[in-house]
Each structure stands twice: as structure tokens, then as C-alpha cells.
Amino acid sequence: xxxxxxxxxxxxxxxxxxxxxxxxxxxxxxxxxxxxxxxxxxxxxxxxxxxxxxxxxxxxxxxxxxxxxxxxxxxxxxxxxxxxxxxxxxxxxxxxxxxxxxxxxxxxxxxxxxxxxxxxxxxxxxxxxxxxxxxxxxxxxxxxxxxxxxxxxxxxxxxxxxxxxxxxxxxxxxxxxxxxxxxxxxxxxxxxxxxxxxxxxxxxxxxxxxxxxxxxxxxxxxxxxxxxxxxxxxxxxxxxxxxxxxxxxxxxxxxxxxxxxxxxxxxxxxxxxxxxxxxxxxxxxxxxxx
Length: 290
Description:
Elements: E1 7-16, E2 19-29, E3 34-39, H1 45-52, E4 60-65, E5 68-69, H2 75-79, E6 82-85, H3 97-102, H4 117-129, H5 145-158, E7 163-167, H6 175-192, E8 195-199, H7 203-209, E9 212-217, E10 220-225, H8 227-230, H9 233-240, E11 244-248, E12 255-259, H10 267-270
Parallel strand pairs: 3-8, 3-9, 6-7, 7-8
Antiparallel strand pairs: 1-2, 1-4, 4-5, 9-10, 11-12
């Protein structure tokens, strides 16, 4: 795999029917980086990934991958360089784990393409990397939600593309497997230069693992850049309506969000928790709460 896979999104307007979801999106993503897309529910995160992967045609604007329009690229050709894990994928009835993961190799075969030793290696490595090798003969429909999610990730990994687009890859996973999957994606990025774009709901994991964060609100890009520039109390207030504090993650040194509710707050902090207002803070505190 190469490391030259950059996205340029220009004046993108996209939606469903006559309802635009994203409008006027301009965004450049450098090759070889991990980007996390965050935002409230229904803000357009998944819609952006669908447009980037050619699944959703734009009403206006374009999405370029290495200077070429993804919407004017043949599906098989695009699938050889771009892998997609959509939200809530559906497996064919009765298919086994091994058969599903093997489908990740289909874009690399022509009409009469033969299965090769390289295909075997790609599938075996994907199963091993995701901890699903022991499940290879089981039907996908018999797996738990977390196991199924890891199998879908294995299929995308078996595709061996320069770009990975993942819509909530940690869905259904317990915290241990969430960390394992994000560590695995980081390994791919560092070893092979894989460009990774993923939608994440856990803001602290997004800050820890992503090189850049894209925050979306009301069909627009609210802000994008390194975590220290995006994960702020102002952003959390504006996008999520959440009062919070930003502290330093003692493990990664990245910013970490601490939500402030009305309960479970230390008494010496309680007096400082004010109701949300439009006059919110924009600086980041790196001090603890005690």
C-alpha cells in the first residue's frame, strides 16, 4: 500500500431527495493521517462518509481522491484503493465469517480472476488482527454484535486499500475491543501510511487517536484541526449543548472532555457549574477538577 491518498472536498452539497444534509462543505484531508468526524446525531457525519465513498451523489460540488473525482471512478477501481465500513452493514443470510472476510478480496479480481496465495495471506492476517480467526467457520448471524463488528472490520482490512472510511467502527464493542480496534487502525496508519477517516461518538477516543478532528454542526463544518484546537468547551456547548471542562489526558497528553451534569460533582466544583448560556468560555482548562 502507498501513502499517497488525499481527499479534497469542494463546495459539496449532498442530501436525500429534496432535503440537503450538508451544504457548502470545503475540506482537505492530507494523506497518511487519521481523521475523526464528530458531531451530534443527524448532523451529517455518515452522509459525508457516504459522499466520500461514492455511495451518495452530490447535488453540487465534488469529492476528489488523489485529484480524481470518486463519482467518476469505476466502482471496482475505487474499491481497489478505498475500503468502506458503513453503519449497520447487513451480511447475506447463512454466510460464514471466512466467506464474508474473503469478499474483501473481490475488488482485486477480474471477471475470471483466480484466488491466490496473496488473497489467503490477506484474509488470514485480517482475521488474526481482529481476533476473529477462531470464528472463521461460524455463521455471521450467530455472532454477538461485538463479534460481528470485528468481522466486518476484518473484511475491510482484507481489502488492503490505501484509504479506509469507517462509520462508527467501535459500535457494539466493549471498551477493551474499542481500544484494540483503534490501536489496530493506528498500527495500519503508522506502518503503511493508510489514510483513515472515521466517525466516532466517543470524543475522548477521537482526541486520543486522531491526528485531526472534523466537527460538524447543522450541515456545516464547525471547525477542523488538531484536537487541541477543536475539542473546546465552546465547541461542546455549541454542538452538543453540553457544559464541560477540558483537562489534559494523563496518558496521551491530548485534551480530554469532562462533562458537567447536575449530579456526581465534587462539592467544591458544584458552585462553579453554571447553566448554559450564549456567553460561554472559549479557553481550555488543563487543571484537574479537585
